[in-house]
């Protein structure tokens, strides 16, 4: 099974952090500046493996190497349908190699606020840690 590199939609996706990591979901989010909002989420459903820092910058997605695939196959017993590999700046002297294996991937492009805002329009989505304003 081939695992092509993930293609991101056009946009400024420099700044990344992980907004959810549960047994059912690994969800990194991206934007030009994560202080107020993000506009992109990679939703890895039923992750079997997620090796990635909590925050990183400027990821370069590529096809997983045969060595990465073999390592996952040994560790997991079989490869899930989605394997994502990327190198990213995590603040150190060298890029960090990241690897995620999951059963599904959904790319969600949506404006998600990272702070409470009284005048947010109905249906506005907020980051999981934001206490929603009372109306």
The N- and C-terminal alpha carbons lie at a distance of 50 Å
Number of domains: 1
Low-confidence stretches: none
Order of helices and strands: EEEEEHEEEE
Number of helices: 1
- Overall mean pLDDT score? 94
What structural keywords apply?
single chain; 135 residues; mainly beta; 9-stranded mixed β-sheet; 1 helix
Summarize the structure.
The chain is mainly β and 135 residues long. It is 8% helix and 46% strand.
How would the blueprint of this fold be written?
Elements: E1 15-22, E2 25-31, E3 37-45, E4 49-51, E5 55-62, H1 66-76, E6 82-89, E7 96-102, E8 104-113, E9 125-126
Parallel strand pairs: 8-9
Antiparallel strand pairs: 1-2, 1-5, 2-3, 3-8, 4-7, 5-6, 6-7
Structure, explained:
The protein has 135 residues and is mainly beta. It has one domain. Helix content is 8%, strand content 46%. It has a 9-stranded mixed β-sheet, covered by helices on one side. A hairpin with a 5-residue loop joins strand 2 and strand 3. The longest helix has 11 residues. The protein is globular. The relative contact order is 0.23. The mean pLDDT is 94.
